[in-house]
What we know:
mainly alpha; globular
Amino acid sequence: MWVYVARRLLAIPPLLLAVSFVTYLLLYLAPGDYVDQLKENPAITQETLNQYIRDYGLEGGFFQRYGHWLGKAVTLDFGYSFSNHVPVFSLISERVANTLLLSITAMIAAWMLALPLGVVAAVYQGTLIDKTAGFIAFCGLSIPRVFYALLAVLFAAKTGWFPTGGMRDQVYWDDFTAWERVKDVAHHLVLPVFVIASAEMASHMRQMRAQMLETLGRDFVRTARAKGLGFWTVVWKHAFGNAVNPLVTQFGYSLAALLTGSFLVEVVFSWPGMARLTVDAVFKQDEPLVMAAVIMATVMLSAGNLIADLILAAIDPRIRLE
């Protein structure tokens, strides 16, 4: 187990190097940069621009600029944001926490709903319960998240039951106690989590149903029933553990999909996460901020895949990661 974990961890630095190289190359080849935007401001002198270029390592060719960035990045110094004028690492760390809060909450909600619904739909195959679950899955997969998000904002605006955007109350936040702040953030989480989790829940539910239908027809399930075990004992204790394995392998990709799928939702709900920060950085051609955002997304994807493998090995004794 530890040998496998060590191998996976050692594979991350080369991956980050390759991703950073390609990302920086694309930014370098893109027309214009942040300095070109500054040149449009008549109040900025050429001397100021030259000093700015030297301070931020924007002089020279591609390899010189990339080497300057990489030399600082290996020490976790991602430089200063061009547009925000603050250290990139402090800016990214705050936004990553907000995005992870939204994405992980949505993932937990999606899996907690998808697994039991998929099992029940398989057990009651062809009944009204199964057809209702299928309709929910159809809606979750066919309706775009951004449309869901807009409908949720409209619902919040019409009913007043939920906030229409943001992560916290902008008026009374400073006066809240710790518990009131937790409740306020949870209140703001409800609609974004519902929108993000809907598609993931639908996909996992359909797969869980298909796996359970296949597993319930296997010989070991019939043998367990023949021994006199209760039906639901056989379903949850014997069939469920075998049927859920293929879904566990998708955990890493699920986390990545939630992170990317949350981008539009964050924009619609004005959630202060990585999405809004990255989109603004791209439009403003904020090179250090874009690079840090891409690197952070790659790290989270690698971590998600590693966690998926470890969970799969923990629940299935037939798997030996060595």
